[in-house]
Design goal:
The chain has 344 residues and is α/β, with parallel strands linked by helices. The chain has helices at residues 76-79, 109-122, 139-142, 165-170, 193-206, 224-227, 239-249, 284-291, 303-310, 320-337, and strands at residues 2-4, 13-15, 25-29, 48-52, 63-70, 97-101, 127-131, 174-175, 178-181, 209-213, 230-236, 265-270, 295-299. Helices cover 26% and strands 18% of the residues. One of its GO terms (biological process) is negative regulation of cell division.
Length: 344
Amino acid sequence: MNTQYTQYGQQPQPSDSPSIPKPPTRYYPSSGASQTSRGAAQPGLQPVANPVAPSAATGRSSGPRHSAAVRPPMRLADANPARLPETAIDTADDGNIILCLSASGGVGLSVCASMLALALSERGHACALMDADRTRGGLDVLLGLEREQGMRMSDVEAPLGRLEGDALRQELPKWGNVSVLAADPWNGEPAQWWELEAAVAALSQVHDLVVVDGGDGRGLEQVPSLARAAILLVVEMSVLGLARARTLIGGIGGPVRTGDTAGPLWLLGVHPRGMPRRAPRLDAGQAEAYLHHRVEDAIEPKPSLCAALLDGMGVERIPREYRKTYDALAELVERETGHARGTA
């Protein structure tokens, strides 16, 4: 008597007809599968139409966005791509990667990373923006791209720890001229470290510069390219914010490293939201004295930008009040990473 599985993970039921276990379904964009897509079309497997209703959380457009395909069981090399020499992971040209971190939640790190990417793009660079905050994500929603078709991290699968850069770039939604790879952990399990490594390596091969939103950096010490990347640390300009930033700079609990292999480190201060207008504020000099590191600038929160984000309007442009700061940061990135200003 054969054993049949009617649903992945259920107990086997007796059956008289021959059958094989069914793994869970995965999805790939209906515009055409590629090897960068989770559940990419396999020989002998037929995609099945799977209309998806618009989500109340994201409001994505109705209609069949995805097709379903059977995903084969994970191979040993997929679980540990560095195990065998012939399956070693491609490493990125980390000289063109900028990892954005913050030790304080709610400081506006994702907005800062997005504006830096936009400023670099406006200076003529082919730029990508990647969301490596695996457990929270939502960078596409922040930018107002949640209705845009294209690949998210839940769609990315890295066979043997590799992705093809051009194929990945073509499947990503665009924010202006910036390619955006957002994390969406609510659509599946958080990305594995080798998937993050493969994605950042692929993006770095086909873009001049890659800006990565790394959250507080936890879990990213396993990603070799990010551990060696240049770092923009966004610091909350408060006593507690400075104490947390000092810990992160020391390399505890994140990928910030010291030594010959570490990239440059830049600090950008952001004053806390909701402070009374006349309340005393920490200045850049006080922060530098405590952190023993230069602070490039300290910016005030912009209420209209915060309101637009809360209303789901996204980020449209760099506000005039921030233009000088982000242009200076973009110039600093160009100079210290060896990437001359591009031509638009």
